[in-house]
């Protein structure tokens, strides 16, 4: 099953491409510049051990067309709506996994939510009810994703309108060796996306003796 990553030349997109290919899932990375996407795909493939799935580079429309069902959107917030408008016609019968967080311009320790309430809801409003939009992978450090010697140090919260699509996205994400949790409908993205600037603040704090923190969902402690 080939998965497309739109914005696959950026830090988050590169890390996800590496992780999914390492898990045996072919990846089509998309960019506005097909030649750049091809160069990045070749660079990423060179970092992977033998037996990994292929990573190929395309323009955005080509990457969407190459995807069997899942299309991951990993562009900066500033390009979120414009990119969706450009690829909307290719998303019929596919699931869009929106990982974008609307960080405040000039201050990534805060969010600047759109009128719809979240990036996930903005994507759903723009694409209409016939295309499944799922929010996921908002709180994962790009640095961690790109460090293949390290385990991904967090759980993943998945939200969006439609239980069947949520379960498909959760199953895809669990190929990364992480636990995915059903966080409910698209409105839950308002909370999930807002966790990212909190993590950024913690990771930037000189009072915290580590960086690239993630979140875990823990069971009650037994006494």
What features would you highlight for this structure?
223 residues, alpha/beta, 8-stranded mixed β-sheet, two-stranded antiparallel sheet, 10 strands, 36% helix, 18% strand
Secondary structure: helix percent: 25-40%
Hey, roughly how much beta strand do the residues contain? 15-25%
Record the strand order, biggest sheet. 3-2-1-4-5-8-9-10
Query: Topology as H/E string?
Result: EHEHEHEHEEEHEHEHEH
Largest sheet: 8 strands, mixed
Summing up helix and strand content along with how strands pair, one would put the structural category as: alpha/beta
Radius of gyration: 17 Å
Oligomeric state as shown: single chain
Total strand segments: 10
Helix run count: 8
Which residue ranges are poorly predicted, with pLDDT under 50 across at least 5 consecutive positions? none
Shape: globular
- Taking the alpha carbons of the first and last residues, their distance comes to 44 Å
């Amino acid at each position: 099953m080939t998965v497309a990553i739109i914005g696959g030349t950026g830090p988050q997109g590169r890390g996800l491409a590496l992780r999914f290919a390492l898990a045996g899932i072919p990846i089509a990375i998309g960019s506005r510049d097909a030649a750049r996407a091809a160069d990045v795909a070749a660079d990423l493939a060179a970092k992977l051990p033998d037996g990994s799935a292929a990573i190929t580079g395309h323009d955005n429309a080509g990457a969407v067309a190459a995807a069997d069902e899942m299309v991951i959107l990993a562009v900066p917030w500033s390009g979120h709506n414009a990119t969706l408008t450009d690829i909307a016609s290719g998303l019929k019968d596919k699931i869009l996994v929106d990982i974008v967080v609307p960080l405040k311009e000039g201050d990534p320790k805060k969010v600047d939510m759109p009128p719809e309430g979240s990036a996930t809801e903005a994507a759903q409003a723009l694409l209409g009810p016939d295309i499944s939009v799922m929010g996921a992978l908002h709180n994962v450090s790009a640095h961690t994703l790109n460090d293949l010697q390290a385990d991904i140090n967090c759980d993943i919260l998945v939200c969006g309108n439609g239980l069947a699509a949520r379960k498909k996205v959760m199953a895809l994400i669990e190929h990364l060796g992480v636990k995915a949790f059903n966080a409910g409908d698209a409105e839950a993205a308002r909370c999930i996306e807002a966790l990212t600037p909190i993590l950024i603040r913690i990771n930037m704090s000189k009072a915290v003796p580590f960086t690239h923190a993630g979140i875990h969902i823990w069971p009650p402690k037994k006494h």
